[in-house]
Amino acid sequence: MKTKVDKDWFTAQLRARKTTQRALAQHMGIDASAVSLLFDGRRRLQLPQAQEIADFLGVDVAEVLAHAGVRIAARPGSAPAPTRVRMVGSVDARMIVRLDKSSVSVEGHPALPADVVAVRAQTAGSALDFMDGWVLFFQPSRAVAAELVAGRLAIVEDSAGTRHLGTLRRGYADGAHNLLLPGGGLLEDMRVASAAPVLWIRP
Fold first, then answer.
1. What is the pLDDT of residue 75?
2. What domains appear along the chain, each with residue ranges and CATH number?
3. For helices 21-28 and 47-57, what crossing angle results, to 10°?
4. CA pair distance 85, 117, nearest whole angstrom
5. Residues near 7 by Cβ (< 8 Å), separated by ≥ 6?
6. Which residue has the higher pLDDT, 178 or 144?
7. Helices (H) and strands (E) in the chain, counts
8. Residues 6+ apart with CB under 8 A from 153
């Protein structure tokens, strides 16, 4: 079923910046046809994708969501109330996710599910310095089989219990997956215990 997407707005934004859907697709790491499906409303826009589009266009992610037909519930005449999300760990420069029992909380997006948690990137001084301080939101209780999040940025737990941040791809061995790490790097033929897709990134 199609969602109501304001395709003209997205087209105008790209034109105003003298860029194209193909350039946007390259920025997002997806095929240009996938961007067309998003703008036609034939594929649901995920929160991480909305953030990538917002970064590319230089606009707020809420504006992208609004023109993508995403409705955020709020009382009449009021803005959506900010949500507090528990910070449960960090991501280092090797894209290893370490969980802890911190009592710190951060502000999340009002559209995020109630059981979402967050980790913060701590990558200062590395090749991924640009990510330092980013907050990534995910649902640990909704960890699923690797096949269900292939092609999406996710927090992936391997068979040894180590968690990594990356994008899953088909592996070279039967039953295995490759994990493409942000900024480059590849973990080959990983045996995945579970994977929780990243729902939103707050730079």
1. 46
2. 7-67 (1.10.260.40), 83-202 (2.10.109.10)
3. 120
4. 6
5. 39, 40, 41
6. 178
7. 5, 10
8. 48, 165, 166, 167, 182, 197, 198
Q: Reduced to 3 states, what is the DSSP secondary structure of residue 175?
A: coil
Q: Residues 146, 148, 150, CA angle at the centre, nearest 5°?
A: 65
The distance between the two most distant Cα atoms of the chain, rounded to a whole number of Å, is 55
pLDDT digits (tens, 9 = 90+) for 127-153: 888 899 999 999 887 777 777 777 788
Q: Is the pLDDT of residue 124 over 60?
A: yes
Closest by Cα among 68, 4, 59, 43 to 151: 43
Pairwise CA distance, residues 173 & 67, whole Å: 42
pLDDT in tens, 77-115: 555 556 889 999 999 999 999 998 777 899 988 888 888
Distances (CA, A) of 45 to 42, 50, 71, 106, 177: 9, 7, 12, 24, 24
**What is the rounded CA–CA span in Å between residue 64 and residue 34?**
16
Torsion sign across C-alpha atoms 34, 40, 42, 46:
positive
**Position of tokens 């493409």?**
180
Both tokens assigned to 61: 């992610």
